[in-house]
Amino acid sequence: MVVKKVAKKTAVKTVKAVKKSVSKTTKKTVEKKTPAKKTTVKKAETKKPAVKKIIVKKAEVKKTAVKKTVAKKAAVKKPAVKKVAVKKTTVKKPKVLVKVKEPDYRINEELTLTKYETGAHTSPQVYHKDPMHTEEPPHGYDVNRVVILPVDPKFAFIYWEVRQDTIDSVRHAFGGGKLTLRVYDVTNIEFNGYNAHEWWDMEVHHRMGTWYLRHHKSDRNLMVDIGIKSHDGNFHAISRSRAIYFPRDFMVGPGKILWMLVDEFGNKLISDIEDYTDADLELLKKLMGAERFKRFMKGGLDIFLGASAWGRIPIIDTYVELEAMPSSRSGSSLPTSPMGGKK
Amino acid sequence: MSKGYLSLVLHAHLPYVRHPEYDNFLEEDWLFEAITETYIPLINAFDSLVNDNIDFRITMTLTPTLVSMLHDPLLQDRYLKHINKLIELSYKEVERTKYQPEFHHLAMMYRDLFLNCRYVFEEKYSRNLINAFKKFAEMGKLEIVTCTATHGFLPLLQINEQAVKAQVYMGAKYYKDVFGWQPKGIWLGECAYYPGLDRILADNGIRFFFVDTHGLMYADSRPKYGVYSPIYCPSGVAAFARDPESSQQVWSAEIGYPGDPVYRDFYRDAGFDLDFEYIKPYIHPDGIRKMTGVKYFSITGKTDHKMPYNPHAAYEKACMQAGNFMFNREKQVDHLFGLMRRKPIVLAPYDAELYGHWWFEGPMFLQQLLRKIATEQDTVKTITPWEYLKEYPKNQMATPAGSSWGNKGYYEVWLNGTNDWIYPHLHVMADRMVELANSYNEPDANLYRALNQAARELLLAQSSDWPFIMNSGTMVEYACKRVKDHIYRFNRIYDGIKGYSLDMNFVGEVEKRDNIFPHIDYRIYKTQ
After folding, report:
1. Is residue B8 part of a domain?
2. Which of A64, B27, B259, B519 is the most buried (most CB within 10 A)?
3. Which of A66, A268, A287 to mutate to test the interface with B (most CBs of B within 10 A)?
4. CA distance readout (Å), B12 to A107, B146, B189
5. Are both B329 and B474 inside the same structural domain?
6. Do B45 and B194 fall within a single domain?
7. B491: domain range?
8. Helix count (H) and strand count (E) of chain B?
């Protein structure tokens, strides 16, 4: 019964943010997507005053109903969490990135959404007519597990579940300790538990939870352990995630250009290798256009996208700045068994 | 001789929505509207080009979920009912508007349009529009690429590699079952790529896929020709990247073509405008007003006072914009060719449903564009990615950067506070599916059915549409319900199998509802 709760529990502020933005979006949607209704009203004014009332009423009812549901949902579903995450984390507002607004050529969410637009919404009551019963998803799966996923090149999502009996037995074996997430930078190495470039520790307070994490470099491989950090400072891992690659958000430096020949049947051959020259750079600049090229050279998509142009949910305002956490550099504890060990 | 190529890619996709348990289910309208407003108009446009002997090339994704729905007899029946209702409404509208000249001709236009839809759907292509697309593919005009099985967002499923492999495998296999040949290309759901994914594509015989612009610009080797030539991943699979310039002209809400004031307004619909009692038979039986597709007004501008739609002016505008688009491509290709000394490929991918459904005049624009390109100039030719690779089999080798075509360019739309709760379930389900597949080699008939159904439930839960909708804030209830249904159904089957208490009545009921991929074999999840 835990995963779900946890998922909801986690990012306390996230909940808030989401709550806010959901209601914003809802408002927006109602306003935006019911121009038909508005006009109807107008039309009705001139033609059929009797109709007006009905329609107006309907629109109002719908609006409030939607708002209510949202508010209710947020209030009911994500309750106790707040205390937990907020207290324990270092909460910082994300830096406001430079917003250079360029007309967005990326997938246009608003247009894409019209694919799912019928102008109406199935009311939840409809689902009750379904004779097949569906239960809420389980809150947990009674496993020891930690997972890290990329949100963007420098933003990670972590979720975990640890069995209480495992926590108890590890604590018992090592004389107590705190449940801790340890994030490793394992870029370009065969990680053996000891050789991470860096690692960071974050104390967590629930055996299930989620976390958003900001780090400062892209093009890295990150991995997470969940474990117990005992009072003597040693870390005892309980579960380890897969190493996950976080995408590159910059243009790589000049290097070799390899040319590959692939025939119709898929046979491949590296045919030539040449150096990347200044002339190549000049060519790329001309091909992509000076302005766009400059932005690509600068790196960091947020900057050239003006990404929040669509007023979507500002992802999270509760998250952890990885670099603000105790790290291997600042002399944090060394990893030990079962998966770790002294460095 | 041409100096370069334009490759238009239309990504046609809808999630699998089929509810036999209801007589009328609102979300099934997604498909019906797309058939009436996008797929049939596109088919008509291609037919018209073929009839006039116009040489053109276009690439389309037909996702396995969409193809499954277009094949499905229940949905075919329901579409027919839907279009018949619309025809009935349009006749009434012709009558109702007979003293309103500004609307009367539009009512007649809709009547003819709906009648044509019924003819194309029922008579010309025997209720199965896949026949139409297949016909154009066999003529060599249309290249159909496949997609992952249920449009899964692979970077977020990579926690279990077998889940990714199954998405790709099933996408390729289903395509082959339907069309009879191996797909050359794939559209990764939301163009979402992560390094290493190409190896799985190569294992499934896929030869090319698409990424967003930055996927190529941030590749692990600087792309010599930018996005105007594909690159080969080390696996030998080619990656084509989107040209920002041509995309912007159509996609941009600010400066894009579809926002022109003379075009038909999408939101203003008779389903909301007309008297309730009058329109009642044509909206949801529960009395919920919904769009009917009969729309009488033009975008006009940022005002509620919309002007009646003028199809002739809109047609003129679409032709003009097609000319403008072509002119820009000519200049662009000319410029690029001069720099590259080889023919560039300008890749312009769009959601197919943008054309027709939202942008009513979109199919007309496309048709005009293809006509003009074929007949009015020699600088640009249309091409499919596979044809380009045959002409230019030698390309730079590099691994694209992880990316998607979503807002901000990465994975955030599909993973944020509104939808992150689904991932722990999706990952556990994938692990459990692998566990089941590894545990049962020779199941009896019932167990085999149950295992296959579990695989279907997993795939359906993985559709990227659900987190996308959750993020958008509209229709969220439905998206949440769908994910929860599939989680529940999967887990109940899993528990039944593991606890030797399989309820075959339940399995049978779920098989009837979630009947996608009838020939699936759960062993695609086997790792041992």
Report:
1. yes
2. B27
3. A287
4. 14, 10, 11
5. no
6. yes
7. 415-525
8. 20, 10
Domain boundaries, chain A: 256-298
Q: Do residues B448 and B404 both lie within one domain?
A: no
| B87 within a domain of the structure (yes/no) | no
Across the interface, which of B223, B248, B424 has its CB nearest the CB of A103?
B248
Chain A contacts in chain B segment 260-299 (CB below 8 A): 266-269, 271-273, 275-276, 283-284, 286, 288-291, 297
Are B41 and B172 contained in the same domain? yes
User: Are B450 and B502 contained in the same domain?
Assistant: yes
- The length of chain B is 528
**How far, in whole angstroms, is CA B149 from its chain's centroid?**
12
Instruction: Report H helices in B119-262.
Output: 130-138, 161-179, 197-203, 213-217, 244-251
- Considering the domain architecture, whether residues B395 and B505 belong to the same structural domain is answered as no
Sequential pLDDT tens for chain B (528 residues): 899 999 999 999 999 999 998 888 889 999 999 999 999 999 999 999 999 999 999 999 999 999 999 999 999 999 999 999 999 999 999 999 999 999 999 999 999 999 999 999 999 999 999 999 999 999 999 999 999 999 999 999 999 999 999 999 999 999 999 999 999 999 999 999 999 999 999 999 999 999 999 999 999 999 999 999 999 999 999 999 999 888 878 877 667 898 899 999 998 999 999 999 999 999 988 888 999 999 999 999 888 899 999 999 999 999 999 999 999 999 999 999 999 999 999 999 999 999 999 899 999 999 999 999 999 999 999 999 999 999 999 999 999 999 999 888 999 999 999 999 999 999 999 999 999 999 999 999 999 999 999 999 999 999 999 999 999 888 898 999 999 999 999 999 999 999 999 999 999 999 999 999 999 999 999 998
Task: Count up the domains in chain B and report the number.
Answer: 2
Alpha-carbon distance B463 to B108, whole Å? Answer: 39
| Local structure of residue A193 (DSSP, 8 states) | S
Whole-angstrom CA distances from B440 to B409, B431, B444, B454, B482 are 41, 15, 10, 13, 28
- Alpha-carbon gap: A252 to the closest alpha carbon of chain B (Å): 6
Interhelix angle B101-118/B73-96, nearest 10 degrees? 160
Q: What is the CATH number of the domain that holds B198?
A: 3.20.110.10
Q: How far is B428 from chain A (nearest CA, A)?
A: 8
